[in-house]
Design a protein that fits this description.
By secondary structure, the chain is mainly α. It has four helices and two strands, in the order αβααβα. It has a two-stranded antiparallel sheet. Helix 1 packs across helix 2. It is globular.
Length: 103
């Protein structure tokens, strides 16, 4: 039986490949595939999903080798950064809640 963390890792891999296999190289995300992934999977966390300039910035920031595509390792950087940001938000929210202050 898989642990929760192992299932999460499997889900991350599965999501990446379900989008990366839609056009071009099957092991990388093109800009269009990245946009679709962001819009369908992360639209509540990333506000620039419908902004072409925002998608361009994300692609440029993550594309370490400059090939205009994101491989899995580059994609994981985005997921890790969002996960850290969400954790920080929830920690701050919990601290404020315990102190009885308004956000």
């Amino acid at each position: 039986m898989s642990s929760r963390l192992q299932k999460s890792m499997e889900g991350l891999i599965s999501v990446f490949h379900s989008y990366s296999s839609k056009e071009g190289a099957v092991n990388t995300l093109s800009k269009m595939e990245l946009k679709a992934l962001l819009q369908q999977e992360l639209s509540q966390l990333i506000t620039c999903c419908n902004d072409p300039a925002g998608i361009d910035r994300i692609m440029t920031d993550l594309d370490e080798n400059g090939d205009q595509e994101l491989d899995f390792q580059e994609f994981v950087v985005l997921v890790a950064a969002l996960t850290v940001a969400c954790n920080d938000f929830f920690e701050d929210t919990c601290k404020k809640g315990y102190q009885g202050t308004e956000p």
